[in-house]
Design brief:
2 domains, single chain, alpha+beta, zinc, N-terminal domain of TfIIb, metal-binding
């Protein structure tokens, strides 16, 4: 089984990042610990990707029902990192008592 990464979205939810693609949570985790995710390009009117992914509580992909055919829209490997950094900056700015510039620089240097 393959590992994946959870990445924060700008709306406070999470994307699942796996094999250069983002997936959004389609259904809550079931009683067996399986979560179903859908390709984020499902609602793209030109692509309409119908790939579903199932993951378990151990951070592993259990199944993937097909292959993506929209490789020109692969996620750049830097994008998940940037989404994590943005989330960390937001969290630190919300709780920081230091000046914004200093908090921002400390976050980037970590």
């Amino acid at each position: 089984m393959s590992k994946f990464e959870l990445v924060p979205t700008s709306k406070g939810k999470q994307y699942l990042f796996f094999e250069k693609q983002f997936f959004y949570k389609l259904k809550p985790t079931d009683q067996n610990g399986i979560t179903i995710w859908r390709c984020r390009l499902y609602y793209d009117k030109d692509i309409r990707c119908k790939i579903l992914l199932r993951s378990n509580n151990e951070g592993e992909v259990v199944s993937l029902n097909g292959q993506h055919d929209h490789f020109e829209k692969d996620v750049n490997i830097v994008e998940p990192l940037m989404k994590n950094v943005v989330q960390q900056i937001k969290e630190k700015l919300n709780s920081a008592r230091a000046p914004l510039k200093k908090t921002f620089e400390q976050t980037l240097n970590n």
